[in-house]
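Re-run requested by the PI after the first attempt was lost when the workstation crashed. Everything re-entered from the original request form. Ligand of interest: magnesium ion.
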Amino acid sequence: MSTLLLKVNPTNPEMSVIRKAAEIIKRGGLVAFPTETVYGLGADALNEEAVKKIFEAKGRPLDNPVIVHVSNEEMLRLVTENIPEIAWKLISRFWPGPLTLVLKRSARLPDITVAGLDTVAVRMPRHRVALRLIEESERPIAAPSANLSGSPSPTRFEHVVKDLYGKIDAIIDGGETEIGLESTVLSLVSSSPMILRPGGVTIEQLKEVIGYVDLHPVVLAELELDKIIARSPGMKYRHYAPRAELIVVQGEHSMVRKKIKELIEYYAEKGQRVGVLFIGESGYGADEEIKLGDFGDFVQIARNLFSSLRELDEKRVEVIIAEGVEERGLGLAIMNRLRKASGGRIIRV
Ligand code: TXA
Ligand code: MG
């Protein structure tokens, strides 16, 4: 399949480009587009055949439902039922933005979009290109992250090209995404609001608006807990993983540095190429190193995380050692992705 590459101004998108992409969505094709979190792989959420193609292109298991993206209240009502009061509170504070709400689905959605569940995950993105594309398509757009299933989510056009070129109809180039991690998935169908996936909106921010918020145990779990009945089906798959083996070291900073130096030496002795993802001023003199961000700058660290994992893979390192962060604010989402990408290999010092 030939893939159309469409360059766009991310803050003031040319309508000619948006129209071209919307035409593809309307006739049941696949378009990758930037959002404020990561790139999404979009299809008409109401078109069963179109959504099926998303799963095929990504190699995504059919029991992992995708997020439905809307641009107005009418579309939200079209895909959901019984929207509770608490949802409206959250919507007025966080939409458009990186908050996905799990609500009761409507019968208008084909089963494949929600993987046969009686709920739907829905969000309104705040990226201009994403919003215009949904508006111009005049229908909700189903879109998981635009990566091959299991690999780190794409935060740049080049990442999407690498994973999906030749497999989808078009890719819109809107530059680098702002947040770099996916949206927060919050269930509003459990007895109390529960975070199924931490992301761009923090638990602290949610609590300010609705008081109490639960954290699903799998968010903090050391390993993929297949035995927990996963409420968010995506929880049970290995995710975000680079090809290289990944080890995360978390704790007091001087102890972290000491431990990482030991690990570098250990792998160097075994003759393995080591890459390090570090935080703060100085690296470690490993084979390859990338600075994730300044100390405590979770915004910067989040933005760089996925692209740095991909970059180290391209540099063909065999082991990646990453400095962990504290699990507060965006740090909760950063550690959740590092935990999943490492398969739970976290050393605490
Ligand atoms: O930031 C984002 O959310 C990006 C951009 C493109 O919007 N999208 C994204 O989609 O990350 P995806 O498909 O990669 O992740 C969707 C997550 C998965 O963990 C999935 O299991 C969960 O949302 N999910 C989808 N529908 C659900 C439902 N009905 N109930 C519970 N979890 C659901
Ligand atoms: Mg994904």
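Saved to the shared folder this time. The first strand starts at residue 4 and ends at 7.
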